[in-house]
Amino acid sequence: MSILDCYGADLDALADLVGDFDYLSTREREAWVAGQWRMIAQAMGWSDELDAALERIKTTRLGLAQSTAVAIAAFRSVASGDEDEEPIADRARVRQTVLMTLGAHTTNVWRIDADAASVPSGVCFSSGRAAEGRGSIRERAARLDSPGKSLAQDELGREVTTDDTLAKRRAFLADSGPSYFWGPAPRVIHYRPGCGLESPLRVSLGTFPWVYGRRLQAPSPGLLWRSSGEYIPAAIGLEIATSLWHPAGNLRQDAREVVAHWQHWRETTRGLIDALPEAGDEPQRGDELYRSGALLQSAQDDEYVGVNGPRGFICAAAYNYIQQRFAAFFAMRRALLRARGRLPKELRVFVDANPDPCIPQDLNVARETST
Question: pTM for this one?
Fold first, then answer.
C-alpha cells in the first residue's frame, strides 16, 4: 500500500515520473529540487542561464540550498528582457498584481477559478487604444450614416459607452468553455465589448506556463506574458508554480484540488494518448508520435507534434511538462507524508491549517482543537 493511496491508486506511479527522495536527507532533498529546476528550465528554454547560475553556487557554503533563489533570479533576468509595447504596457502591471494578490490571499493556488469581478485588484488593463485607428467613440459615431444611430453604438451596431470601456481589456484569457483543465463555466458569455467580467478568471498556476486548458500548444501562454519595467508577471507565475513542489507551498495546498484537476486532465486526454502507438525497440518513424510510459516521444521537435481532440490541440512538449508538474507535486507530498511527525515546526503550521483529510491521517497526528 502506497502512502499516496489516500489520494488515488495511480498517484504513486505518477510521482515516480520525477524521482523519489528522502525529505529528511538534506542532500537528497536539495538534489531533487535542483533537478526539478533543470527540468523546468529545459522545457521553457533557459537551461543555459540556469546552468550558469547553478555553477556559480556549486562551491559556495550553502551550495544547492540556494538553487531556488538563483533559479528565480535567472528566470527574472530572462523574462525581463521581453517587454510589452508601450500602448499595452499596463497589461504587465495588472497581470503581476492579480497573481501577487492571488498568491497572498488564496490558499489553494494550483488551479484558480474565480469570479473575475471579485478580484480586488481588478483583471482589466488599459490598452490605450480607444482613440487609435478608427478614432474616438464620438468621432466614429459622427461617421455613422444610418439615422437613429447614437453615441452608444459602434459601426457594427454593438452597444458601447462613452467612457473608456473599449480601452479596457482582460489581462488573462477567458477560459470558460470545456477544456483539458476545466468543465464549462456555469455561464458562458458571448462577445461583449470591454473587459468581459462575466467570464470567470481561470488560470492553472500549477502547470505554468501552460495556464489555459484550451491553449496547450507552443509557445506556452505564460511565456508570452511580457514584462514592463518593474512588472515581470511571468516570474511571479513561475514563483507560485514552483512553490507547489516546495515544502511550505505544497503543504498549504489542499491536494484534493490537485487530484480533481489530475482526474479531469487524465479523463480528457486518455483516449487521445491511448490511441498512439507504444515506443518500442524498432526504428521509429520521424513523423509519428509515440507513448513512452507516462510521457510522449517523437523524433521531431516536441513543440510541433502532438494530439488533436475536441477540446483542442496538445503539443507533446505541453503534455510531458504538465505530466511532470503533477508528478512533482505528488512526489513532494509523498516525501513530506513519509517524514510523518519529524517535520520541522515551521512546516507543522501549514499541516495544522490544511483541511486535506489525508495529511493528519498519514502523518498520524491529530489536529489541535480549541475547547
Answer: 0.85
